[in-house]
Inverse folding.
């Protein structure tokens, strides 16, 4: 769909029919459409979308539209928002970045990517709690959240556990420096440097204590800039610096 930029064309209609068959097979009630980052919202593109929507046979399927490339704070073009409302479309947002739907809807649909580069991120307990709080102030009957973080399944379970118990679960079998060692053991390549460690591992979480999960970068940032040949050198240097 990206190449066609939501214009009415035979290729788009054929693609849509394929996606609709997939939704029917999965009993999915919402079809997510994503505009490319280079998509320009203007009178011409809005009119193209109007003609496209007028020709689609949804058959009860709801469309959730994600518009990328909009500068922060500018919001949706008013005419695009009205077109979406007139066609019962859902405005897809990212609640992890505190984005808000442009208008009230019975359904809130959010794709969660977080604050890292693309989806390379693991949200803290506090960030997941904030996402949950944001859903409570929206006027909707249903909240749909699609996790796209690297550890999306585990993050979704963490939020579900919090919703059910009021507490977030531990993410490792250890605590403190041992938890950090456990996380670094997953896929760290040695030899490495502090900069490489921060880039490759800093986005992950570990259990700093029984109740506190923090990003690996919070501790790795204390390391001196030098080469490290193995995990024990890393945790040993941290233990010396932090007197753990």
């Amino acid at each position: 769909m990206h190449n066609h930029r939501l214009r009415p064309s035979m290729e788009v209609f054929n693609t849509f029919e394929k996606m609709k068959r997939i939704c029917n097979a999965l009993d999915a009630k919402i079809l997510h459409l994503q505009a490319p980052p280079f998509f320009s919202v203007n009178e011409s593109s809005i009119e193209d979308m109007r003609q496209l929507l007028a020709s689609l046979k949804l058959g009860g399927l709801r469309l959730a539209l994600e518009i990328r490339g909009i500068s922060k704070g500018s919001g949706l073009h008013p005419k695009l928002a009205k077109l979406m409302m007139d066609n019962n479309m859902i405005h897809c947002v990212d609640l992890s970045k505190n984005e808000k739907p442009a208008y009230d809807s019975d359904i809130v649909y959010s794709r969660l990517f977080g604050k890292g580069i693309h989806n390379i991120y693991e949200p803290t307990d506090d960030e997941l709690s904030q996402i949950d709080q944001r859903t409570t102030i929206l006027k909707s009957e249903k909240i749909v959240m699609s996790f796209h973080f690297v550890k999306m399944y585990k993050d979704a379970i963490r939020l579900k556990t919090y919703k059910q118990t009021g507490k977030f679960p531990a993410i490792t079998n250890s605590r403190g420096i041992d938890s950090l060692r456990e996380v670094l053991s997953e896929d760290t390549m040695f030899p490495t440097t502090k900069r490489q460690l921060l880039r490759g591992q800093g986005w992950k979480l570990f259990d700093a204590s029984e109740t506190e999960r923090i990003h690996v970068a919070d501790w790795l940032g204390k390391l001196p800039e030098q080469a490290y040949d193995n995990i024990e050198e890393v945790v040993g240097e941290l233990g010396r610096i932090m007197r753990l």
Q: What stands out?
A: The domain at 2-165 is CATH 3.20.20.410 (TIM Barrel). The longest helix spans residues 10-26.
